Amino acid sequence: MKRDGTSPDTYDPLDPDYMLDMVETFLAPLSRHYFRPRLLGLQNLPPDGPAILAANHSGSAFPWDGIVLDSEIYRREQPDADHKCRSVFEKTLSATWWMRPFGIDNFWRRAGGVDMTFDNFDRLLQRGDRVLYYPEGVPGIGKGFRRRYQLQRFSSSFVIHAARNNAPVVPIYVVNAEWVIPFAFMIKPLDALMMRLFKVPFLPLPWAVLAIIFPFLWYLALPARLIFVIGKPVDVAAMVREAGLTDLENCDREGMRGVAEKIRHAMQKRLDRHVERYGRWPYQWRLLRRRFREAKGKRLLFLPLAWVWKLQGHARDRLRSPARNAVHRFFRDWDLLFYYLPFGWLPLSLTRRWRKPPCGYRGLSAAERRRREGAFFWKLEDRPLPPRGAARPSR
Predict the structure, then answer these.
(1) In sequence order, what are the beta bridge partners of 39?
(2) Measured CA distances, 233 to 44, 141, 360 (Å)
(3) Domain for residue 80, yes or no?
(4) Does a structural domain hold residue 108?
């Protein structure tokens, strides 16, 4: 044990300086002027854990709803790394670079994310974290526009975690996120093929076909006004006891699925009410025009074309010397032009191999590249987070 109370094997890739800078320079202005989120019921959010914040997902491929929600909670609460909600994400989001936002290395973990496994989830709650979780899983974000606001089957795992750790489940109802990409439609056999060949769980049509041609379209978002309604905490442990489920070590999976289904039905009813109240005018064009007029000096945020350049440049600038002038600032990121050229994915992948850090991986060992990219499976059993309140270990 070290003097600061941490184990020498603890690991925390959360980068609070990067996260705060990214929120202040990009996500907060983008949210205010473009997505214009409303966060209602913040008083229902427990100030500390253990707690499970359970939100519905939009039916498009890129999780703008989750990114905006996470950053808004962080921004409106005390921006403290130890207080940050921990999101859990599917490991496929780190396995392939094009599934990370704008190809930024280890993005999800640097923003506080943890690989989604049964054991990791349980350890986060034991640590006292508030866990941002989407009980629909991948089917939620891959349900497509036709099934908008239709909650998919909830996993029973979060019910087990809540009961074991006496953690309340705080429902969060997300309205209008379906309209961020209203032209995403799924075909299950094609999705299965994409997962097998490219580790991508679904291929939204016809939007993703265009994104295959022009990579920047993969991160496209229309300016829907995102509404987040935080509901009152649900005592899931009490629901489990009422169902007669007392053995939490050898769980009755069918019984736990029944509790999960009750929660899903209750959340569906509430979600339908919130959609009726807040979802009639998803874009609110008048407010968007007003925010555009107010966004002096920040109007590039209204152009999804500029997002790749801005976010990738921001991530790289933290690891390199300042640009000598405007021309140098533009041309040293010449490889980002491939995001806007037809079939740019292949040259983007090649330039990542050829260019030196921070723009690429030339000169790095295979192990160092995996570490830097975040292309590995993180098990808290092997590399635990430090105790809450302990001094942060070096990454």
Answers:
(1) 228
(2) 7, 24, 45
(3) yes
(4) yes
In-domain check, residue 88: yes
SS (H, E, C) 72-118: HHHHHCCCCHHHCCEEEECCHHHHCHHHCHHHCCCHHHHCCCEECCH
Q: For residue 287, how far is the Cα from the chain centroid?
A: 26
Q: Of the ranges 209-218, 274-283, 339-348, 360-369, which one carries the lowest mean pLDDT score?
A: 209-218
Helix/strand/coil for 70: helix
- Angle, helices 253-278 vs 157-165, to 10°: value is 100
130 DSSP β-pair partners: 51
User: What is the token pair recorded at 140?
Assistant: 């939620």
pLDDT value of position 239: 96
- CATH code (residue 222): 3.40.1130
Burial pattern 275-307, b for ≥16 Cβ within 10 A else e, equals beebbeebebeeebeebbeebeebeebbeeeeb
Given this model, what pLDDT does residue 296 score?
86
How far apart are alpha carbons 303 and 130 in whole angstroms? 34
pLDDT band of 392, cuts 50, 70, 90: low
Answer yes or no: is pLDDT of 97 > 80. no
User: Amino acid identity, residue 148?
Assistant: R
**Residue type at 197 in one-letter notation:** L
Q: 132 lies in which domain range?
A: 16-289
- Residue-wise pLDDT for 209-255, tens only, equals 888 899 999 888 999 999 999 999 999 999 999 999 988 888 888 99
Quote the strand ranges of 178-235, DSSP E: 184-185, 205-206, 227-230
> Is residue 331 in some structural domain?
no
**Closest C-alpha to 35, from 75, 61, 64:** 64
pLDDT of residue 27 exceeding 70:
yes
**pLDDT number for residue 331:** 93
CA-to-CA distance for 334 and 202, rounded, in angstroms?
Answer: 30
pLDDT tens profile 159-188: 999 999 999 999 999 999 999 989 888 787
Residues 36, 302: Cα–Cα separation, whole Å: 12
Tokens representing residue 200 in the block: 């991508």
The count of structural domains within the chain is 1
How many CB atoms sit inside 10 A of residue 384's CB?
17
